[in-house]
Amino acid sequence: MNNIQKLKVSFSESQLGQATNWADWELEDLSYCLGFGCGHNGGSTVVIRDVLKPNNSEMARSRYFVDPYPEFLCRLYDKMQATGADFLIQSHTHPFCDKPAFSGTDDVSALRLNHDLRQVNPRAKVVQVVYGRGNSHFKARILSGQNGQADFECLEDIEVIGPKGIQHYGDNQQPPDQKGIDKAGIPLGEERNARAFGDIGVEALHNLKVLILGTGGLGSAMAYLLSRLGFRMITVYDQDRIDETNINRFYFVSKPKTAIGKFKASFVAKSMRVFNRLGKYRPINASIFNEHEASKAVKNADLVITTLDSDGPRLVACSLAARYGKPLVNVSNAIYLGKDKNIKGAYVSCQWFIPREEKYPCLRCQGALNDKAIEKELMSERLKEMRRKVGYVVGTNESPNAQVIPINSAAAGIAAWEIALWATGTRAPTPWIHYDLMNNAFQVLQGVGDQNCTICGITPASCLATGDADLDAEDDTLDEGRTRAVGLTE
Amino acid sequence: MKNVRRLKLEICGLQNRYGKANVVFPSDFEWVKLVRFPLKPGQYNLANCTALIMIPPRYDLVSIRECYVDRDLQMRRSFGGLQELPHAHSGFGYDLDGYRWLCFEEPQGKNTGLIGFIDTLRAYFTDPHGYVKANEG
Known about the structure:
Chain A is of the alpha/beta class. Chain A has twelve helices and 19 strands. Chain A has helices at 13-19, 70-83, 104-120, 191-207, 217-229, 256-259, 264-275, 291-299, 311-324, 371-378, 381-389, 405-423, and strands at residues 8-12, 30-40, 43-52, 59-61, 66-68, 87-94, 125-132, 138-146, 149-154, 157-162, 165-170, 209-213, 233-237, 280-284, 303-306, 328-337, 343-353, 432-436, 441-445.
C-alpha cells in the first residue's frame, strides 16, 4: 500500500481541458479518464490515455447528485478491457461550494465503481477527484482495495504536460510554482536569464529534468547551452567514447589528448558540473537499444531531447516518449553533397512530439523518418547475417555523414531557445522548424497525426501512454495458446 | 521493447481465425507458431504446414521479416513430381528443429503487423512463384 501513497497523475493539457470542460455550474457534472501506471522515482505515476465524458442523456444529474446510466458504464468498462488500462480517474463537480470535500454519496459511488471495476480488471484502481465551483479548488483521493477491503488515500500530485510547459497541482492547492520562490536561490551568473524569463521562469529551468539522448557533436552543444541557460538536472545518454574525429565538433574539450577515449556522456556530465556546481548532471553510458536503461531514463525525465544521428534510434526514443507521456524534441542537421562532392544542401531541424497533443504528432507521423532506413537499422543481427549470406544485403556499414560545428551550433541554438520558451511557459513551441542554411530560409512545418498510428494514435494497439503495462508480458487471457520454447533455441 | 499490446490483440484475432490450439507462442512473445496452417489442396506435398514467425525485438516499429516453414514442404509440379518453394533456404536458423527459412517479406514500405503478415503468407502460398514475380525488385 505504501507505494501508492506517492501517486501522481499525468495529464496532457488537452486531456485535462476535456475532462474538466463542464457543461455548466448549475448541476453536478462527471467525467472519466483511463490511465496506465508506471514506476517513477520510487513512487508511481498514472499516465492518462483516454477521456470519456457522458452526455446529458447518459447520466442523471441534479445540483447535488450525478450518476451515470448503466449503458455509459458498459461503454466505459468495454474501453477499459480493450485498452487494458489499470487506473480509472472519476472526476465530478460540486457546484454548490468553492472548496470541495468528498461526501457520503461520493464514498458510495467510489466503492461501487471499485467493486464493478474489479470484475473487469482485478488490478484496476480508482482515483476520485472532486472540483469546486469554477474549478478553483479540487480534492483527490485514491481508492485502494486490499483483500476485498477498500480504503482511501490522498493523491500527491497532478501533473499537466502540454504546449504551455509542465504544471503541477497538489491536493487542493494552486500550482506550487506560483508560491514562494527562493529569491536568494538565483545566482548572479543567471541574473540576465532572470531578466528574460523572470524568477519563476529561471526556477522552472532549474527544476526541469532533461534527458539528452546522444551526446556527440550536437548533443554536447545542447548540453553546453542548456547548462548555461540554468538547467540543473540534465542526464546525458550515450554509449560511445570520444575519438579523434569528434574533437573538432565536441563542446567542452579543452585538452584533446585527455578527452580521447573517454565515454562521451561521462565527459559531458563532468564538464557541466565544473561550470555549474549546483547542477545534478548525470551520465548514462548505455545504448538506446538497452531497454531497461533507456526506459528508466525516459521515465525519470520531464523532457527528452534526441540528437541521435539515425532514424532507427529516433523511432525507439519516440515510442518510449509516447509510452511514458514525455515531450520529445528531435534536433537534427544534415549536409548533402552532390555528385561533384560540393555542398548541395545544409539543413537544421527542430521538431516537437508532445504525446496526447494533436498538434504535435510523433516523428513518424510528421514524415521525418525514413522507413527503409529504420527497417535496416532495427533488423536483428541474425536476420541481417542470414540476408547477407543469401545476397540480399550488400556491404556492412554506411560511411559517416558530413558534419561541421557551425551547423551543430545553429541547430543547438534554435532548439535551446525553443526549449527555454516552452519550459518557462513563455509560448507554445513551434511544432517543426526547418532551416535551410544554403538559402537562408526558415520554414515552419506542421505534421498531421494518424489516428491509427501505433505510437501516437488512440487505438487499442497503440503504445501511447501505456506506461509499464507492456513490460509484464504475461497475460492470463492468452494462456491456452502458450507453450514453452522447448526445442526452439538455436 | 515489443508492442505487446498489439501482439496480444493480433494473437486473439489469429486464435479466432485458426483455433486456440493452433496458435502457439512463448510468454516473451519471441515467436508465434501457426500449427496446421492450411495450404491449397493438391498444390503441395502436405495438406497443411507449420509456420514459425519470429517477432522482431522492436515490433511494431519494424515489420515482421523472419519466417520458417516445415523443411519437408514442397510444391507439386503441374506434370508430376515435386519442386522447392521459391526463396526457401535450408541451413539457417531453426534447421535442426525441422524448419527452413522462407526469405519472404511484405511488399516494400508496408508494416501491417502479424495479421497482415499472415495474410501475405496466405497470398504467397496461393501462388508462390506468382507472388515472388509480382513483388520482385
